[in-house]
């Protein structure tokens, strides 16, 4: 993503870049708004944080389901 965004800074037009990489202009501009000025290290760290956040959300959802099941069992007794 960073390399693709840097191509525009080097003078290529957006039309050339999206054609070369098979992207839509909407995707390019979405990436530009999110990741403009970010380095590869920052994007790598961001990806790791997003993955950790996804795993934590999944754990929370699983624990919540377990909690609801236990409460339901206790209510029936």
How would you describe this structure to a colleague?
One of its GO terms (biological process) is DNA transposition. It comes from Hymenobacter coccineus. GO terms for molecular function: DNA binding; transposase activity. This is Transposase. InterPro entries: Homeodomain-like_sf (IPR009057), Transposase_8 (IPR002514), Transposase_8_domain (IPR052546). With 77 residues, the protein is mainly α. The chain folds into 2 domains: 1-37, no CATH class; 38-76. It contains 4 helices and no strands. It has helices at 2-9, 14-21, 25-35, 40-76. The longest helix is centred in the last third of the chain and has 37 residues, at 40-76. The radius of gyration is 21 Å and the shape is elongated. The relative contact order is 0.09.
Give a concise summary:
This protein has 77 residues and is mainly α. The protein has four helices and no strands.
> How far apart, in Å, are the first and last alpha carbons?
56 Å
Helix segment tally: 4
- Ranges where pLDDT stays below 50 over 5 or more residues in a row are none
Q: Give the SSE order as H and E letters.
A: HHHH
How many domains in all? Answer: 2
Question: Beta-strand percentage?
Answer: under 5%
Helicity range: over 70%
Supply the helix-strand structural class: mainly alpha
| Main beta sheet | none
Mean pLDDT: 91
Beta strands, count: 0
Approximate shape: elongated
Rounded to the nearest angstrom, the radius of gyration is: 21 Å
